Amino acid sequence: MTMKMKHLTSLALAAGLMFMISCKSKPKDADIKAAVVAALQSSPGVSADVKDGVVTLTGTVASEADKDAAENTAKVTAGVKSVVDNITVTPPPPPPPAAPVATADDALKTSVADIVKDFPGITADVKDGVITITGEAKADRWKKLKMALDALKPKKVDASGLKVK
Amino acid sequence: MALQDKYKELIDAAKSSGTTNLQVAEQDGVLHIDGEAPSGAVKDQLWDIYGKIDPNFLAGDVVMNINVATAVAGAKLTVTTDSTNLNIRKGPGTDQPIVGKAAHNEVVSLISKQSDQWWLIRTDGGAEGYAYAQYLTPVE
User: Fold this and answer.
1) What pLDDT digit, counting tens, does each position of B20-40 carry?
2) Which residue from B26, B30, B32, B86 has the fewest beta carbons nearer than 10 Å?
């Protein structure tokens, strides 16, 4: 009788213990989500969803490094079994052009910017097909620039504001 | 016609040096000279004459676009940057990812011309992509 009671008690204890353990090893998805979201505060733009301990990350970040960082952050959060990384990397858009004008000027502007960026000290402006150059440059550099600009078929290259050294 | 007189030596030189598809037109006070020079040396010569008539090209009354006829598919090109490597890009534009580099003075092959500005090239190392034509000069 005493033995039986003891046996039952230990059985009940064991069952209870097992219940507790299984409870502990399975944190609620909502808790995991809260922890992941808190950990992801350094990664704005990323949101997390949790199902059965599997975290799915979505959102947009500016670089591959940010994406990896967010994924690693989620991975090391307690309770997370695995991470599905659905984050997309979108580099920040280039600054908008100063003034939206005719298409021809836009195309010309892009090409001019591509060229002029290799010529420090020189600024170029495009308006109505005319490229206006200001700043200063050495004569041989300016010749190179002029050759490149003329190849863009502008209406005119106005360099009256350029100082040639 | 005044501009054609001012730049007569330049126009005559273009004609006599075998520049093809030569177009000389005056528009809104600017003389537009377009054509295809038989070699890079002729192109340089024309630019020298232009620079003699209009020192430092500051008058702004000429737009001269001379291409070099030898820059055709399969031609060898020298990378004529100032000293740096030339970026080879996935597509024609500086917003395109860089897929390789060609060293200063390296000789590369011209595959095709996407535009006057962007040429598709291949290096001996096998890198293939678009590079800025401004820094590529046909090997004479």
Assistant:
1) 999 999 988 999 999 999 988
2) B26
Specify the CATH class of A26-89 in words. Answer: alpha beta
Q: A151 in contact with B at a CB cutoff of 8 Å?
A: yes
Q: Are residues B94 and B128 in the same domain?
A: yes
Whether B60 and A143 lie within 8 Å, measured CB to CB: no
The count of other CB atoms within 10 Å of the CB of residue B31 is 19
> DSSP state, B28?
T
A15-72 pLDDT, tens digit per residue, is 655 555 555 556 789 899 999 888 888 888 888 999 998 999 999 888 888 999 999 9
CB contact under 8 A, A139 and B94: no
CA angle A74, A78, A81 (to 5 degrees): 70
CB A66 within 8 A of CB A57: no
Assign domain A103-164 to its CATH architecture: 2-Layer Sandwich (3.30)
Contact residues for A75 (Cβ-Cβ < 8 A; gap 6+): A82, A83
